[in-house]
Design brief:
By secondary structure, this protein is α+β, with helices and mostly antiparallel strands. The protein has helices at residues 5-15, 148-160, 216-230, 280-297, 334-339, 351-364, 372-380, 390-400, 404-416, and strands at residues 30-39, 57-61, 65-71, 74-80, 86-89, 94-105, 110-114, 124-130, 137-143, 172-176, 187-190, 195-198, 200-202, 209-211, 278-279, 304-308, 312-314, 317-319, 323-327, 348-349. Residues 1-5 and 11-26 have low confidence and may be disordered. The structure holds zinc ion (ZN). Zinc ion (ZN) binds at residues 221, 225, 286, 289. Zinc ion (ZN) binds next to helix 3 and helix 4.
Length: 420
């Protein structure tokens, strides 16, 4: 676990040789307020950063981000921006350089973003000429247009200040925005390094190379894995290849294509997808990632807009990504509709059913909604922890939350078809 002080030290070393000069207070007060610009390629179905403005670009207040102020070539101030993304100086007229780091720290939770695991900072700068006649003014600055680190910084700044998103005090979160996973996958949360990776993927059909940092659904999904991992408990998985109907390793698979990823998933990892029949723990883990991405970009009182990032097979044809839909009350029941009859075995599920299950329990199912921490508690208290069977999870929910809340786990499981 890295310490936030490390950042201050890093910046301090970078500033060595420069003069710290904050003593010349004059009448002019300049307040610099800053925004992270984000750019997404999969913004569909009015899905937007809490506001539901249909747009692929937008801005997020750069609150609690690390800044430098360099005035006339001299570093005069550094620290964390305030809760509004602002910093004030009284150093008087001159040429100001504002430098922002893609690092967020709200006093309890930190989220640092690097291009790769070498962990060198890539910073963002803007220069402003402030003159004597301006007096007390507020200067707005925007950082990072069409830069993937800014996408992630916007998500980080948003996430650490939203209590419903499961960030934990004392935790340090790390993202590498231009690097594939240690195992080679284009995007993942890696438990070994405790970091999330957003790299590039070369499509199987050679259409194009895709960078994951431009896909908000993937960013949200991998962040969901990181959040789930940092909570006391949460769904675990990753054993997809043991299921007969996964990928090209489909020996003995008797399920229809509606319950597989092969052969239609080409834009991404074909080992698992929204509709594939998986072990229950895998389906829950991936469904949690989809649910988290939905929760991340939508306010609690808004419809659950989501854009899926792999191909989806239905009605005898392929829907190509991004595939937008709204997570709602009406159950999908994908497993029950297509994937139960053949290729037996219990404790199976699909990602889409689990996305619906988590989303509705979290946001709309009844008056005793499950928080991210509540989900973790159910997993932590079950005998199999992250690998639990349905019955273990339902028992744990009933024991952890006696009364209507605990019972609603089973009710929702029955309704959304994850009770298999
Ligand atoms: Zn995943």
């Amino acid at each position: 676990m890295k310490c936030v002080l490390q950042l201050a030290m890093t910046v301090g070393i970078a500033a060595a040789g420069l003069t710290l000069d904050v003593g010349k207070a004059e009448a002019q007060t300049y307040r610099f307020c800053n925004l992270w610009d984000f750019t997404w390629q999969d913004d569909w179905a009015a899905q937007d950063y809490l506001t539901h403005v249909p747009s692929t670009v937008g801005s997020q207040t750069a609150h609690y981000s690390w800044y430098n102020i360099v005035k006339d070539g001299t570093l005069i101030d550094y620290g964390w921006l305030d809760s509004e993304g602002c910093v004030e100086t009284t150093a008087g007229p001159g040429s100001y350089l504002l430098r922002l780091y893609p690092a967020v720290y709200d006093g309890a939770k930190s989220f640092f973003i690097y291009p790769n695991d070498q962990e060198q900072w890539q910073t963002f700068e803007v220069t402003r000429q402030m003159n004597a006649t301006q007096g007390h003014i507020t200067q707005y600055n925007r950082f990072g247009s069409s830069n993937g680190l800014a996408n992630m910084a916007a998500v980080a700044a948003h996430g650490v200040t939203r209590p419903e998103l499961g960030f934990q005090s004392g935790e340090h979160y790390v993202a590498y925005t231009y690097q594939n996973c240690p195992g080679g996958a284009a995007a993942c949360y890696h438990p070994g390094t405790e970091a999330m990776y957003l790299g590039e993927h070369i499509r199987a059909d050679n259409f194009a190379t895709q960078r994951r940092i431009w896909q908000k659904s993937i960013v949200g999904h991998e962040l969901g894995h990181m959040i789930s991992s940092r909570l006391a408990g949460g769904p675990s998985g990753g054993n997809y290849t043991s299921e007969n109907c996964i990928g090209e390793n489909d020996d003995g698979c008797t399920l229809p294509q509606e319950c597989q990823c092969y052969p239609h998933v080409k834009s991404s990892n074909g080992a698992h997808c929204l509709q594939s029949r998986e072990f229950l723990s895998d389906a829950a883990q991936e469904g949690f990632g989809h649910f988290y991405a939905t929760a991340l970009y939508n306010a609690p009182n808004q419809p659950g807009a989501f854009a899926y990032y792999k191909e989806f097979w239905t009605y005898g044809g392929t829907i190509f990504p991004p595939f937008p839909y709204e997570v709602g009350l009406t159950p999908v029941g994908w497993l029950e509709a297509f994937c139960l009859e053949n290729d037996g075995g219990s404790d199976r599920g699909t990602e889409v059913d689990w996305q619906w299950f988590f989303y509705n329990l979290n946001r709309v199912f009844n008056s005793s909604n499950y928080s991210m921490e509540d989900f973790a508690a159910v997993y932590a208290n079950s005998p199999g922890a992250g690998w639990s069977s349905w019955s273990e999870l339902a028992d744990s929910a009933a024991a952890t939350f006696p009364g209507i809340k605990g019972a609603s786990w089973q009710t929702a499981g029955d309704l959304y078809g994850v009770n298999h």
